[in-house]
Amino acid sequence: MTEEIRKGLAGVVVDYTAVSKVNPDTNSLLYRGYPVQELAANCTFEQVAYLLWNGELPTDAELAAFEQAERSQRALDPAVKRIIDELPLTAHPMDVLRTAVSVVGALDPSWNDSSPEGNLAKSVTLLAKIPAMVAYDQRRRRGQDLVEPDASLGFSANFLNMTFGSVPSDVVVDAFDVSMILYAEHSFNASTFTARVVTSTLADLYSAVVAAIGALKGPLHGGANEAVMHVFDEIGSADRAEAWLDDALASKRKIMGFGHRVYKNGDSRVPTMKTALDTLIEEYDRPDLLALYTALDETMQARKNIKPNLDYPSGPAYHLMGFDTEMFTPLFVAARITGWTAHIMEQLASNALIRPLSEYNGPEERHLAG
Ligand SMILES: CC(=O)SCCNC(=O)CCNC(=O)[C@H](O)C(C)(C)COP(=O)(O)OP(=O)(O)OC[C@H]1O[C@@H](n2cnc3c(N)ncnc32)[C@H](O)[C@@H]1OP(=O)(O)O
Ligand SMILES: O=C([O-])CC(=O)C(=O)O
């Protein structure tokens, strides 16, 4: 008889990490020791990416060099563009992105350089290139041409410019940047753990990231931000939220954007993202969307007392910014590439093959007749 089986590894501590600390008791999240709310209020996403990878915030000179490295690698390689063009529009954008990242890996002659410097360089490359992949995929779905990157713009302004062909107001750029910071890292979530499992076999960084993108796609994880918007579309308006929810709960549906494996009293990131959403509601004059958001949340609290997670405010925020619903989870990838790769480097620095045990419950030993 083996140890007690913990389905879904719930509550199991599998390793140390110095990248981030999720504390459900204090409802807090620290990146390398800094509260995420402080980072969201005072830093750019580029500064946070640097922090996650290097353990410290950059000096002005370090930030300038880092920004230069990111800005100079943003363009979509022609081979990657050609492969995206080959993919049908029936493909989910997460599958397009997974494929495009895989192609970048296959084109990199140094794919097998897993030194700390090699992996850091690959991480910056992916940070720089993923927005071009996501933005181009959004545009081609609308019959629009590629917009080239603009090296005079920061990460978020450039991302939005490449997607929509112009830089929106500061309110929108700031809300997008805050969402990137909040989505950047969250300890041993399913996709990060996937990346660490792949890394533990000594496979390369690109393989680990491609696997992580697959893990993030599911609606119990990153796919929930897209699913939240489908729920909003299904409900339609605030006055229908109560009846819709009662019906959904009676049919044992999981309500997307609510609940969390670690936080049981609310997701530490929600208040910050909700504030960003409120600025967007005002910017786009959409009190109807706020009313629906509030009605579903309040009814969920009254019926189940299950709190919203980060995907709940992020979904409608990305909708207001103008992204098609199926692009929401790729936006999560654009942020989480920082956390995934920080964990890949941490895993390699102190590696042990990840290989748990199982308790066999199939047929007793038996033999072929004759
Ligand atoms: C950025 C992120 O990845 S955050 C997560 C995003 N995912 C979602 O929003 C999907 C919806 N949420 C869920 O499915 C779950 O809350 C999860 C998967 C996130 C966490 O699940 P777990 O930790 O395994 O909790 P579990 O599923 O055991 O839930 C405990 C109880 O709460 C219920 N519950 C949890 N979340 C929900 C929900 N969203 N809707 C309805 N009921 C829920 C479960 O049905 C279960 O009830 P029971 O004890 O009567 O069976
Ligand atoms: O931590 C988790 O399980 C899921 C999550 O919120 C994240 O990855 O941001």
Automatic annotation (TrEMBL):
Q: In which pathway does it act?
A: Carbohydrate metabolism; tricarboxylic acid cycle
- Does the keyword Acyltransferase belong to this entry? yes
Q: Which UniProt keywords apply?
A: Acyltransferase, Transferase, Tricarboxylic acid cycle
GO MF terms listed in the record are: 2-methylcitrate synthase activity; citrate synthase activity
A Pfam family per the record: Citrate_synt
Q: Does the keyword tRNA processing apply?
A: no
**In which family does this protein belong, per the annotation?**
Belongs to the citrate synthase family.
PANTHER family recorded: CITRATE SYNTHASE, CITRATE SYNTHASE, PEROXISOMAL
Q: What is this protein called?
A: Citrate synthase
Origin species: Herbiconiux aconitum
